[in-house]
Write a structure and sequence with these properties.
Layout (H helix, E strand, L loop, with lengths): L1 E6 L4 H13 L3 E4 L11 H14 L4 E6 L3 H7 L7 E4 L7 E2 L5 E2 L1 H9 L3 E5 L5 H13 L6 H8 L3
Parallel strand pairs: 1-2, 1-3, 3-7, 4-7
Antiparallel strand pairs: 5-6
Helix pairs in contact: 1-5, 2-3
Length: 156
């Protein structure tokens, strides 16, 4: 799988740690920037081109990283076809879906919403937590259930 990845200054170190982890899992990694650590850079300038690449590629998947992941998700969700989920740690609760399956935040975002970008909060996650989150995100498929397809189509 080809994974597009991008981070601002707050997520730069985590991005650099995730790249070899992803290649070690057998994925092709396309680094969309930042190429160097530049304190005070602006996340929209870095994550938006990454999101465009994800949107252009059928089945594209991306990871964007910032301090909280919130601004990054807001920026990339403006790109048509992008459905970013924010993650900055395991939620205290899980949801039970209509089929009775218990799902955590990441599994729910992938299975029900076909999220195609994972937005990580680098200041809330350890490197190991981020690696596990990325692994879960990538290994969880979209369910393809009609009700979820219908809802995603309404997003435009």
């Amino acid at each position: 799988m080809r994974i597009f990845i991008a981070a601002d200054h707050a997520g730069f170190a985590l991005k650099e740690a995730l790249k070899p982890f992803l290649t070690g899992l057998g994925h092709e990694v396309k680094d969309c920037g930042a190429d160097t650590l530049v304190e005070g850079d602006d996340y929209p300038d870095i994550v938006t081109p990454c999101a465009r690449k994800v949107a252009e590629e059928k089945g594209g998947i991306g990871v964007v990283i910032g301090a909280s992941g919130q601004g990054e998700a807001m920026a990339v969700n403006r790109i048509p076809g992008i459905r970013a989920a924010v993650y900055y740690g395991e939620a205290a609760h899980a949801q039970q879906d209509a089929g009775g399956q218990t799902l955590g935040l990441l599994a729910s975002a992938r299975m029900h919403n076909d999220a195609n970008i994972l937005s990580l909060g680098a200041r809330f996650l350890s490197e190991e937590e981020a690696k596990e989150a990325v692994r879960t995100f990538l290994e969880t498929p979209f369910s393809g259930e009609e009700r979820h397809v219908r809802r995603i189509e309404k997003l435009g």
